[in-house]
Design a protein that fits this description.
The protein contains four helices and nine strands; from the N terminus they run E-H-H-E-E-E-E-E-E-E-E-H-H. The chain is an alpha+beta fold. It starts with 13 loop residues before the first strand and ends with a helix.
């Protein structure tokens, strides 16, 4: 068994969204790991996720294409770093599929899912290389954007 990775939240470098939601962890996991589902909630409206390629295993690829209401496009390629089904999903844009360096890095995402009496304690962390990258992500609207995406995820899985 692979040991569980240890992450230290550094408030000078990292952002976190932590919320308890009233849906079961199994459905949160499916929404994160099934491309057809992820495309329905991942991008805060009016933006849309128009492509998702996801290989849910360490070294697997994670690519999304998001499109804005005025034709803007954001194509992001990354690598899955660690997976514990229904508990932990870790990915980064510093690496591409097969752990190949991309030459650029913005963040590593750590999605933790814990069962609670109400449903799921959902924790999303964005780890950055320096305070400037954290500030950039914060200024882009990390909390409102990732919070809206979580609201969309919850609405989606409640309808499943």
């Amino acid at each position: 068994m692979t040991p569980e990775p240890h992450f230290v939240f550094d408030p000078a470098l990292d952002l976190e969204l932590r919320r308890e939601v009233d849906v079961p962890p199994q459905l949160v996991w499916r929404a994160w790991t099934e491309p057809a589902l992820l495309m329905k909630w991942f991008t805060p409206a009016p933006w849309r996720t128009t492509l998702c390629e996801l290989d849910v295993r360490p070294g697997g690829g994670f690519r999304t294409v998001m499109e804005g209401p005025n034709g803007e496009k954001h194509d992001s390629t990354g690598c899955v770093l660690h997976v514990i089904p229904e508990r932990l999903f870790v990915f980064t844009d510093a690496l591409g599929p097969g752990f190949r360096p991309t030459g650029s890095a913005f963040m590593t995402g750590v999605i933790s899912i814990e069962a609670t009496a109400k449903g799921t304690l959902y924790t999303a962390r964005a780890l950055h290389k320096d305070p400037e990258a954290k500030k950039q992500h914060d200024d882009m609207g990390f909390h409102s954007g990732w919070g809206t995406a979580l609201d969309q995820l919850v609405a989606l899985v409640k309808g499943m």
